[in-house]
Every structure is written in structure tokens, then in C-alpha cells.
Amino acid sequence: MRIALVLPAALLMFLSSPMSHAQQGQTEGINDVYKTRELQAQEWVERFESRGREAFDLREDIIEAVGLEPGQSVADVGAGTGLFVPLLARAVGERGEVHAIDIAPAFIDHIDSTSRAAGLKQVKTVLGTERSIRMPANSLDVIFTCDAYHHFVHYEDMLASMLTALKPGGALIVVDYDIGAKQVHEAMIRHVGRTKEEFARQIRQAGFQFSEDLTLDTMKTSFMYRFVKPALH
């Protein structure tokens, strides 16, 4: 079922590209490759869903740490090729909902196809924009985003969209590269451009409250933070 967003993970092919800043944060043009008609989802499956990428290797542990419950409504923002979609679907069960959101039509089509083939009726796809996840107000229990936050060029608009979509008390889980970690490649540091502290500051300024550092002991290049929408927001 198509509604219409995913913001993908880090682009190795753009690591050394010069880019200008937007909203005092992430870089313009970083998502251009995902908007092209020539985008082939299978090529990116091989990039995103391969051993050696920390998000792939730790995918089961990451979803366990999110702490989803059966029947909940969760959005995977920047779902890419759908690495986490079946894991999220399993966590919320048949009574729950998984909204796979991305800006790449090819990724949305791929997730539609793979979810139907797997019989995951609780999965719905949403083609979003760089400014909005296109979800109704107070409709989500949890928003999950992995290796995608640094792709939020217009992060103020995106965060406002996510804050609106979450139910009061709902959680925003952010997994992304920690450019202060020793094992992060210099090219990735340039690509991501901002520290986890700066990302957290942006999210708090948008109206979220920092809740918990969920970073796994096994993470060598990433951080994992939980934020919440204030109950009285």
C-alpha cells in the first residue's frame, strides 16, 4: 500500500563531494542520487545489506534495543532498501503497523515488493520528501532512523514533521555514525560532518527530550539515542 519517504544510509560514492550547508546543519545535494530515475534498488541492497556494515551486522541487537511492543505503530524514516522492515514487522506483530518511509521511489517499490512477497501486511510504504515524513499527527508510537539523520538536509522541517507525527510520549530512536569514534574513516567524517552532540542539540531544540543513550557495547562506529515527545506537547 503506497502512501508516500525514506532517507537512506551513508553514500560512499559521495563521501568526497563538496557540499554547501543548509539550516546550519547537513549538506545540500547529499540525497540527489536517490532521486534519479536510474536508481537501481538491487545495487543498493548489496551496499546496505552486506557484512561489515555495522548497521547490518548488529541489526537484530539494534531492533531489540528499540524495545517495540506488539500492536505499536512504528516508522522507519530513511528505510532505504528495507533492511530493518521485516525486523520491525516481527517486533510489532500482525496487529501493529510499520511505515517504511523514503524519498527514493525505487526503494519504495522494492520494499513494497519484498513485503508483499513475505506476507507482511502490516507494512505500508510512504514516499516522503526532504522536508516531511508525510504522516498524520499523533499517529506513531515510535520513529526509528538508522544512518539517515545526517541526510536530513532540512533537518528543522524534518524534525518538526516527526514531532507532529509522534503521539505524546512517543519515542524517536536515532542511530547514526559517531564521527568521534576511532574506527570511523576520515572520508565518513567529512561526509557526516556533525558530531553526535550536535545532532542531539538539534533534536532537543526541535522540542524533543533526550531520554536514553542506547549505544550498544558492540558498536564501534555508531551511536544510538532515544528521544521522546513530551507528553503535554
Structure, briefly:
The protein is an alpha/beta fold. It has helices at residues 41-48, 54-57, 59-66, 85-92, 105-117, 155-165, 186-192, 196-205, and strands at residues 73-77, 97-102, 123-127, 140-146, 166-177, 209-213, 222-228.
Q: What gross morphology would you assign?
A: globular
Sheet having the most strands: 7 strands, mixed
- Specify the CATH class: Alpha Beta
Strand order of the largest sheet: 3-2-1-4-5-7-6
Order of helices and strands: HHHEHEHEEHEHHEE
Mean of pLDDT: 86
Query: What class, by secondary structure content?
Result: alpha/beta
Uncertain segments: 2-25
Approximately how much beta-strand content do the residues carry? 15-25%
Task: Describe, in plain words, how this protein is organized in 3D.
With 233 residues, the chain is an alpha/beta fold. The chain has one domain: 3-Layer(aba) Sandwich (Rossmann fold), CATH 3.40.50. It is built from 8 helices and 7 strands. It has helices at residues 41-48, 54-57, 59-66, 85-92, 105-117, 155-165, 186-192, 196-205; strands at 73-77, 97-102, 123-127, 140-146, 166-177, 209-213, 222-228. Strands 3-2-1-4-5-7-6 form a 7-stranded mixed beta sheet, sandwiched between helices. Helix 6 links the parallel strand 4 (140-146) and strand 5.
